Amino acid sequence: MDTFVSLCKRRGFVFQSSEIYGGIGGFWDYGPLGVELKNNIKKSWWRATVQEREDVVGIETAIVMNPRVWEASGHVQTFADPMVDCKNCKHRFRTDDLKANDPSREGRCPECGGELTESRMFNLMFKTFIGPVEDEASIAYLRPETAQGMFVNFENVLTTMRKKLPFGIAQIGRSFRNEITPGNFIFRDREFEQMEMEFFVMPGTDEEWHDRWIESRFSWWTDALGVRKENLRIREHATEELSHYSKRTVDIEYDFPFAGFAEIEGIANRTDFDLKQHEQFAGRTLRYFDEASGEQVIPYVVEPAMGVDRCFLTLLIDSYAEEEVRGEKRTVLRLKPELAPIKVAILPLSRNEQLVPPAHRVWDLLRPHFMTQYDDAQSIGRRYRRQDEIGTPCCVTVDFDTLNDEAVTIRERDEMTQVRVPIANLVDALREKLDGC
Ligand code: ATP
After folding, report:
1. Nearest residue (CA) to ligand 1, atom 31
2. CB atoms within 10 A of CB 363
3. Which of 62, 98, 149, 346 is the most exposed place for a label (fewest CB within 10 A)?
């Protein structure tokens, strides 16, 4: 993990939040390269989940909602983890983590061996107050999931978009959980981003749709993101593990070097639980008129839910490689071109004054088409290594021959092959190498 934390800091992917004040546990900032990778992940998910489908639409809902939403959803009563405190060193732990780590030391602190308090439940929702008075009546919560935004807008979307079952509503947005033990870098945060989709179906077709979504979500990880299949698995939740709303849940898990297989996405059959609860709490009917049977039905819901930050970490780990090239070590992120933060680096062979103008002309030519970086510091070999380390698929080198032949060299990250291309054809040649992106 140290390798990834240090790479992320050194190369501008992820910084500790409020670092100059010593940081703050469970919060992270994304740097110039991090924000690009994150945006590319979100674009890929949105394309697969909304753009390419005829049956899913997107929305964006507020982070703070009427607090009744969280009573209806069950979060006020049940969104809690059991925790214990050490009476001696005051460290706090999740009870289930302690059991999983070392069952033989149950009841003792894993840090100092001290006595632990009884386990008690801790609600993970962040509380705030609306308006100037901080009393019970003004309590509100930062949302712990984006899903409820889709449920409370079910009727709005159904009527404005004239949707027929089955159809889905998707959203990308921030969620907040006051995790007892945030950690493992950006794996478990207190503020993170989720990509969730609620797929509304006719009751009775939910199990079939659940299977379809499991298959389709797994393929997204392998085909769209290029995560290696051997590092992924699908795990069925045991009955006692199921959330209060779920009939069946399956997790897609990644084999993390620090934790073994752990969840990166959950795909749940949420039944009609949420819509029924909102009907009851809001005193409104939230139903779908089924023309075939002439009946009003409450749809069932299949929900694929994943976190952008955890996906970010998965991609870093999965694409990371250290190789030996001509006796030298190189670190390379083998990200798909679509995901790479920088697609093309423009590298003049040196800072020679003859090379600077054509290199800048090439950079000007490419900037409207691709995310680029211009680098003229240190030897060309070093600069290739720097681009390999951040996953840049193509480097364009401007050298003294360019002055005569109006051509440049494209060097590819993975095979390190080099081809000479006329500047006039450069945009098309790069687009082809970058799989059209
Ligand atoms: P875990 O068991 O790891 O706490 P969960 O089952 O509570 O996760 P879900 O409620 O199913 O998670 O959330 C869906 C997805 O959101 C997860 O698969 C994960 O990618 C992401 N996620 C959940 N909690 C966090 C967190 N604290 N930090 C980062 N991502 C998270």
Report:
1. 307
2. 18
3. 62
The predicted structure's pLDDT at residue 108: 87
Phi, psi of 402 (to 5 degrees): -55, -35
**CB-based contacts of 410, cutoff 8 Å, min separation 6:** 394, 395, 396, 418, 419, 421, 426, 429, 430, 433
Residue showing tokens 């993975």: 414
Closest ligand 1 atom to residue 194 Cα is 16
State the average pLDDT for the chain.
95
Residue 191 tokens read as 């503020």
Kind plus residue range of the DSSP H or E element containing 14: strand 14-16
- Residues 217-261 have pLDDT tens digits of 999 999 999 999 999 999 999 999 999 899 999 999 999 999 899
**Among the atoms of ligand 1, which is closest to the Cα of residue 179?**
27
Question: What DSSP string describes 154-216?
Answer: HHHHHHHTT--SSEEEEEEEEEE---SS-BTTTTB-SEEEEEEEEEEE-TTSHHHHHHHHHHH
